[in-house]
Amino acid sequence: MGLWELFVTASLPVLNVLLVTAVGSISATNHVGILTENARKHLNNVVFYVFNPALNAVNLAQTITLERMLLLWFMPVNLFLNFVIGSALAWAIIHIFKAPSRIRAVIFASCSAGNVGNLLLILVPAMCKERGSPFGAPDICSKFGLSFASLSLAIGTILQWSYVFNIVRVTSSYAQDKTATTDSVSKVMFAEEAISLFPEDCRDAMVSTRGCSTSVYPLNNAPLLLYKNEESSTASKVPMSSSKISRFLKFFCGVIDLKKLFAPATVGVIFGFTIGVIPQLKKAIIGETAPLRAIQESATLLGNGTIPSLILIMGGNLVKGMHSSGVKMSIIIGIIVIRYLALPLLGIGIVRLAIHLGMVHPDPLYRFILLLQYAVPPAMNITSMIQMFEAGEGELSVIFLWSYAVASAALTLWSTLFLWLVS
């Protein structure tokens, strides 16, 4: 197949995404006012809790078997390397351009977490429908492409809410600690002054003393307890082993957001895996003659709403970047170079080495998705993390605007090269 045919095959799906993204952006402007911020939040909730899990479950259930699942073992490794290399390059950008501490979490998240799920769900089926596609029959290609993209989405979600989440948490808390030092000192001084107002034998909060005042002084919107009741006395007698377990569980829940880790999309993947690898369940639900085929048909109907909704939301969210500022152009260029030059080149080397060592089975569609995972723009999920830690939402909007504007050209060129490599 000629290079021009591959370029057309790669560019048309990106063009389709751009057109629908433009519709979403126009709908989100103040002049139109259809996709307002609240409307996007509600639509995003429907996609997050209903459409996406249904799409993941039905596509994996149709295509995954135990044997095929064992053949896909390299995808988690590939994505983990992608995230680690991206964060290492982000560290280099921060130190080269001396990025301020308030946006370091944004830089780390933008470079390490790529849109390895939602964007693949959009692009891969569209490429399968093109006549110049090297992936065989369009219907079979779309079915397996969606299953690979769903698996990529699930693994990417787990990495985002475990690995990237903790990078954002640590870097954002470092920035907040520097700005909150003065406030913390003043609060401690206030607490010491409040305690000094009481008799000396009443100052120890861990000792219950009769005759002590039960008054409280407000400290950071919480009462300063100057006495101890019977319940707290009992609590102090808890065995050390229980205390250690409790501290470990609190630490674990703080380090990993389990609620986000097992997102509905991941749950949908688990259901799809379960149905796909158990032949009895698969025969009962999947297929035109299956007795419970209504479940499959309903899930397919819901899943069909995922792709257009995601593109509209993405287009609407990009409008926020037009009204924000505060990021050096050198940092934006550095992030773009990492996402669209350094990571794809390193990804080609990693995937080709894995192929040479026999770690990747010879499916051109699977190899194409492994390569494409390195060339996507930043993941939309990092918006939630940045908002959670208040670590530079305006700056992230600007980075998203530029990243997704450049993505149209970068994805087309890299997709053309990737198609040539796997065909």
Description:
- One of its GO terms (biological process) is endoplasmic reticulum to cytosol auxin transport.
- Involved in cellular auxin homeostasis by regulating auxin metabolism. Regulates intracellular auxin accumulation at the endoplasmic reticulum and thus auxin availability for nuclear auxin signaling.
- It holds the Pfam family Mem_trans.
- Belongs to the auxin efflux carrier (TC 2.A.69.2) family.
- The chain has helices at residues 3-28, 37-63, 66-71, 74-96, 104-112, 118-128, 138-179, 181-196, 230-235, 240-255, 258-261, 264-277, 279-285, 293-303, 306-318, 329-356, 364-372, 382-389, 393-422, and strands at 217-219, 222-224.
- The chain folds into 2 domains: 3-180 and 262-422, Na+/H+ antiporter like fold (Up-down Bundle); 182-255, no CATH class.
- It has 19 helices and 2 strands.
- It has 423 residues and is mostly helical.
- The longest helix has 42 residues, at 138-179.
- Strands 1-2 form a two-stranded antiparallel sheet.
In a nutshell, what does this entry contain?
Keywords: Auxin signaling pathway, Membrane, Transmembrane, Transmembrane helix, Transport. Its main location: endoplasmic reticulum. With 423 residues, this protein is mostly helical.
Question: How many distinct beta strands?
Answer: 2
What's the architecture of the largest domain in CATH terms? Up-down Bundle
Number of domains: 2
The CATH class of the largest domain? Mainly Alpha
- Topology-level CATH name of the largest domain: Na+/H+ antiporter like fold
GO cellular component, one term: endoplasmic reticulum membrane
Keywords: Auxin signaling pathway, Membrane, Transmembrane, Transmembrane helix, Transport
Function: Involved in cellular auxin homeostasis by regulating auxin metabolism. Regulates intracellular auxin accumulation at the endoplasmic reticulum and thus auxin availability for nuclear auxin signaling.
Subcellular location: Endoplasmic reticulum membrane
